Amino acid sequence: MKFNLKKKYLRLFESRAILYINLIIHKWFKEKDLGSLNLNFSDKPTRQHIVQKIIDKKNYKSYLEIGCRDDNLFSEINCEKKIGVDPVSGGTLRMKSDFFFKKNTDKFDCIFIDGLHEYHQVKKDIINSLKSLNQNGIILLHDCLPDSVFTQAIPRCKKNWNGDVWKSIVEFRTKPEVDVYTCYADQGIGVIFNRKNRNLLKIETKKFSALKFKEYFYNYKTLMNVISFEKLLELI
Prior knowledge:
Blueprint: H1 2-29, H2 47-58, E1 62-66, E2 81-85, H3 97-103, E3 108-113, H4 119-131, E4 133-141, H5 165-172, E5 179-183, E6 189-193, H6 213-223, E7 226-227, H7 229-235
Parallel strand pairs: 1-2, 1-3, 3-4, 5-7
Antiparallel strand pairs: 4-6, 5-6
């Protein structure tokens, strides 16, 4: 028992040390700290409320969640068919999303992506989700509105961390075949409809992984196509 407790605290110390080292590296060698956007989601609906509201309004029958962690969302969702994919904990299937999509033959009405918060993986999860989405379905993504350069930095340097999910939203906003928004709620909820883009983003880059946080910092409302929850319900 004492040995296991010691290992637990050692892992905790190591993880905090890694975050601290990464923070120092970002401060000295990475992008400039521009301060905080002071985003406030305290009076906005939670992802649990948003997802369930959409499922109920559209009478969706099937729900897929990528990245379930402690089932904070998955356990709260009421839907006829639920599948949750996570390599560590939560959900119904213990595997990585790439492996799941490789084997999957089902289609879903609502897909919530909250797995590895790094651009390259998020992009793959979106592409695979579009292939597994019913015609009138919807894809939602968590952590799309980081508040500072450090909450989106790769590698991770903060406990509260969004990652660079935002870059994948910017990229898919440039695609004419999908309609993409970001709901101002719960750390930013990305929204992808499988329909013609109604507000196509034109941006002078083809390497979205190289986007700088300062571009997001000064233009996030335009880049992310930010809307309210009320507006989202109108668009559905």
